[in-house]
Amino acid sequence: MRFLVAAFGDAGHAFPAISLGRALAARDHEVVVETWEERRAAVEGAGLGFAAAQEYRMFPPPEPGSDDGRHAAEAARALLPLLEELRPHAVVSDILTLAPALAAERAGVPLATLIPHIYPVVDPGQPFFASGLRTPRTALGRALWRAAERRALRVGLERGRDDLNRQRERLGLPPLERFHGGISEQLALVATYPQLEYPRRWPPHVHVTGPMAFEQPHPDIELPPGDEPLVLVAPSTAHDSDNRLVRAALAAFAEEPLRVVATTNRVEPRRPIEVPPNAVLVDWLSYSQVMPQAALVVCHGGHGTVARALGAGTPVLVCPITGDMSETAMRVDWAGVGLSLPWRLCRPGPLRWAARRLLSDPSFAARAGEVAAWGRANDGAERGAALVERLAARHS
Questions:
Q1: Which of 339 and 242 is assigned the larger pLDDT?
Q2: Distance between CA atoms of 266 and 305, rounded to whole angstroms?
Q3: Segment 264-275, tens digit of pLDDT
Q4: pLDDT, tens digit, for every residue of 240-256?
Q5: Most buried by CB count within 10 Å: which residue of 2, 71, 125, 262?
Q6: What residues are paired with 208 via a beta bridge?
């Protein structure tokens, strides 16, 4: 069969899409990945077809009536010739890429949504997604969240639905009454660990597959010498332009009995970063090399980094800075696989205290090891590919 897999270009979205595409190709299917031009080498290096996506502004979201605000319908219309040429048996669209989802519906092609993080649709009585607040423990707490949903959350959902329906109207598609219209009702793949999901009533078309990991090859780096525990500082690739997390962590651990590896993840420092004798600082590294040797990973809470750490059985210390990082941080804390430290406390003292607690309490590593064992028995990309294959077969 033939499949189009489309993804937003940031690594946290493009890499899971490439992983899924590679798993589909391993099942003898033809796969084209549509994403940003800068990911061409990664896609083609994985043996997959590449199509350059029309790039447009996502953050901050454009006004619906502006030139930028017309992007989704126009990008969907521009994608229709590719669908006519490829004639895919199904389209898999990343949750941030609305245009391929609209184009698939316009062309009458089965559609799956790839969600490369925690499921963003909350049950009644649960905190708003990305609020960074823990699930309530009492009936009163759940009642308060239900009341809040009827007010604040519904307003946002209604606005999102109205914005989506304006794009649908431009393509001649009927309006939707439901919320979260960007998530397919045919198949949704939630590429996270079930241990990070609150207990809930799962819709029959939504499947928690496990993370879908992909990494571009990179030479091994030289680790600091010694036998002390190794700490990896792995910031987001898309945020923290002043390298605040790296600077604070290096200062926090300078006098600790630790070895530290920090990476800027190619965020060019605006001013020099002081590196203590027990640490090395690099611009990029292979998670596959360092994470299995690390006793702790310190990060912003990008889902891909957290998933890679837990896949290696390594607990995490999360300092969320924006977006869904706060949600991931709270789930890490809730699951007992790490700790969450608010961004306002991203300073040497709090980082040092949190790291000491994580490294001195073996329960965090034990729970991270349980998550890793689940991941070894449940390959997320393989499970996702089988589900997409089944979707296409049902509509053939």
A1: 339
A2: 15
A3: 988 888 899 999
A4: 888 999 999 999 999 99
A5: 262
A6: 190
- Plot region of 185 (φ>0 → left; ψ -120 to 50 → alpha; else → beta): alpha
What is the identity of the amino acid at 393? Answer: A
Alpha-carbon distance 322 to 95, whole Å?
18
pTM exceeding the 0.85 threshold for the entire prediction: yes
Would the pLDDT of 306 be above 70? yes
Cα gap 224→301, rounded to integer Å: 25
Q: Is the pLDDT of residue 239 over 80?
A: no
Return the bridge partners of 263, or none: 282
